[in-house]
Design a protein that fits this description.
mainly alpha, binds tryptophan
Length: about 450
């Protein structure tokens, strides 16, 4: 059975879907998370594994997630149980939707805290605080922010409210314009930053760090983190892309739209790396210093470049927009569920979800100051939230999505929904979803826990 529209509405065109999905994919994951974990895991080899995961696991699973969403046309929880029923399978597939909702709460909780850092940096940039900063000054400025729980909490609250407001209004209104104009602007500014890094930074050193693989530095855990980053950056494995797919009209090509989103997302991440690492090396900073990496390197660059006051302010504004269009997609699956099953209005549902995620976010706020000493396996609250979701829950969700689309649904249903006419293309995708992606995820898990 094919449902034509979701009760929550539909994108006004295919282009809007591409923009919204790109808005979801491109965010802090590309500009903040990608450079810092590349730095922590030694560069080149890690980037290569990451790109492999994007292409062989991320792209086929994105297509699978969109196709499930469009066929189910509901929140991921209801989509999974409806599709399972239609295919004559166990209703427990609905649990996959629940897994996504839990992951979504955890991701949203810390995503909002980090987006709060970016909010605070808009004002720092605009006030001229970056001017003349060297590595030590920029580091002290970052420390000053994260050591102050009150300020972190205030920014976290503001960002969570911003997300809640958009989701309460319905994902479509407002969002369309934002992505249409501001995402290209972000891309342009990133290109400009790479230009600056070429002119003033140690560009070749940064370039080699990112692309010259040294496999000796690649541990089993690094491979897991690279795969986790592929899931995180493409918004896969928790139903965000699934629910966006549920608002897509039945004729749009899932393959083409997915390829566009993946291409744009990868381009932004690579550009961010090329903008950051040359500055890292030119300023004598440590690439593996962790989550503060861009908040320390970018102010140095903006503080020295001509027009840096303007560019710096605009950059952090655009980074917030990118984070905003991502955080709304993290919130959407849980909100759609509350509307469908608990009879809540979108406004109430958004308030409930935002409230719970906000509370959980306090753990991340404190993990950078009062609770920095409380660790589990040497990880703070923030580290645990991030590791558990990106490296375990998202790949697990992706694995189950691949199994469902590749093995449990009939080939006929999958083919009908995907609508790929070229047999070779369909076969390739089907092979990736049935074998390469799930086996790849399994091998990475086994390698990370040291079994292979
Ligand atoms: N992909 C976004 C980023 O890179 C974050 C994001 C949005 C996300 N939706 C998601 C991550 C769903 C995991 C799951 O910033």
């Amino acid at each position: 059975m094919r449902r034509d529209v979701s009760i929550h509405g539909q994108w006004s065109s295919k282009l809007v879907f591409v923009l919204a999905a790109t808005g979801s994919a491109v965010g802090l994951g590309n500009i903040w998370r990608f450079p810092y974990i590349v730095g922590e895991h030694g560069g080149g080899a890690f980037v290569l594994v990451y790109l492999g995961c994007i292409l062989l696991i991320g792209l086929p699973i994105m297509m699978a997630e969109i196709l499930l969403g469009r066929r189910g046309r509901q929140s991921p929880i209801n989509t999974m149980s409806t599709l399972a029923r239609e295919e004559g399978l166990s209703r427990s597939w609905g649990l996959l939707g629940w897994l996504g909702v839990v992951a979504g709460f955890i991701i949203l909780s810390y995503y909002s805290v980090i987006a709060g850092w970016a909010l605070s940096y808009v004002f720092r940039a605009g006030a001229g605080s970056f001017i003349g900063q060297d590595a030590g000054g920029a580091q002290a400025m970052f420390e000053g922010l994260v050591s102050d729980p009150e300020r972190l909490l205030a920014w976290h609250t503001i960002f969570m409210v911003m997300t809640m407001l958009v989701v309460a209004r319905g994902v479509r209104s407002g969002l369309e314009q934002a992505v249409r104009i501001l995402m290209p602007a972000l891309l342009l500014l990133l290109v400009l930053m790479v230009g600056y890094a070429m002119a003033e930074g140690h560009f070749m050193e940064g370039f080699r760090f990112m692309f010259q693989p040294d496999f000796g530095r690649l541990t089993g855990n690094s491979v897991l983190v690279a795969m986790g980053q592929a899931f995180f950056t493409l918004s896969l494995g928790m139903g965000a892309i699934m629910i966006y797919g549920s608002y897509l009209n039945s004729r749009a090509s899932i393959a083409k739209t997915s390829a566009t989103v993946v291409g744009a997302d990868t381009a932004v991440a690579i550009l961010a790396g090329l903008a950051i690492f040359p500055i890292v090396f030119a300023s004598g900073l440590e690439p593996g210093q962790g989550p503060g990496l861009i908040f320390i390197t970018l102010p140095i660059a903006f503080g020295q470049m001509p027009g840096g006051l303007l560019f710096g302010t605009v950059f952090f504004v655009l980074l917030i927009v990118a984070a905003w269009t991502s955080s709304i997609s993290i919130m959407e699956p849980a909100v759609a569920y509350l509307v469908e099953n608990r009879g809540l209005h979108r406004i109430g549902a958004a308030a409930v979800v935002a409230g719970v995620a906000w509370l959980l976010g306090i753990g991340t706020v404190l993990s950078f100051n009062h609770w920095s000493g409380y660790t589990l396996f040497d990880m703070t609250f923030f580290d645990v939230a991030d590791y558990l979701t990106s490296n375990i829950l998202l790949p697990l969700g992706g694995f189950l999505i691949a199994i469902f689309a590749g093995w449990r649904m009939t080939e006929r249903s999958v083919m009908e929904e995907l609508g790929i006419r070229q047999p070779l293309l369909f076969r390739t995708w089907y092979y990736l979803v049935r074998f390469v992606a799930p086996i790849g995820i399994l091998l990475v898990f086994l390698r990370a826990i040291g079994l292979i």
